[in-house]
């Protein structure tokens, strides 16, 4: 499993947390959102998902992955 922490802008509430965690769960990743730090810690299998797919799933929810 691969672990990566992404800096994500635009998150402000529990709805944001649920949107991101739900979207990543749908594609087979697990996520822990930290609103205070504006980060998303993601765990995924690189044999099944790419980092670009993870970033795209977050951005499709309306948030900006900046790092």
Care to give the gist of this entry?
With 67 residues, the chain is α+β, with helices and mostly antiparallel strands. It is built from two helices and four strands; from the N terminus they run βαββαβ. It has helices at residues 14-26, 51-59, and strands at residues 2-9, 30-34, 39-44, 64-65.
CATH fold annotation: Alpha-Beta Plaits
Overall body shape = globular
Side by side, the strands of the main sheet go 2-3-1-4
**Tally of individual helices:** 2
How many domains comprise the coordinates? 1
Largest sheet: 4 strands, antiparallel
Task: Give the class from helix and strand content and strand pairing.
Answer: alpha+beta
Give the number of DSSP strands: 4
What is the highest CATH level, the class? Alpha Beta
Q: Measured on Cα atoms, how large is the radius of gyration? A: 11 Å
Work out the strand percent. Answer: 25-35%
Q: Examine the secondary-structure arrangement and name the CATH architecture.
A: 2-Layer Sandwich
Low-confidence stretches: none
> What is the string of SSEs from the N terminus onward?
EHEEHE
Oligomerization state: single chain
Head-to-tail CA distance between termini: 20 Å
Helical content (DSSP H or I, runs of 4+):
25-40%
Mean pLDDT: 96
Structural notes for this entry:
The radius of gyration is 11 Å and the shape is globular. The chain has one domain (2-65): 2-Layer Sandwich (Alpha-Beta Plaits). The model has no long low-confidence stretch (mean pLDDT 96). It has a 4-stranded antiparallel β-sheet with strand order 2-3-1-4, with helices on one face. Helix content is 33%, strand content 31%. It starts with a strand and ends with a strand. Strand 2 (30-34) and strand 3 (39-44) form a beta hairpin. The longest helix has 13 residues, at 14-26. It has 67 residues and is α+β, with helices and mostly antiparallel strands. The protein contains 2 helices and 4 strands, in the order βαββαβ. It has helices at 14-26, 51-59; strands at 2-9, 30-34, 39-44, 64-65.
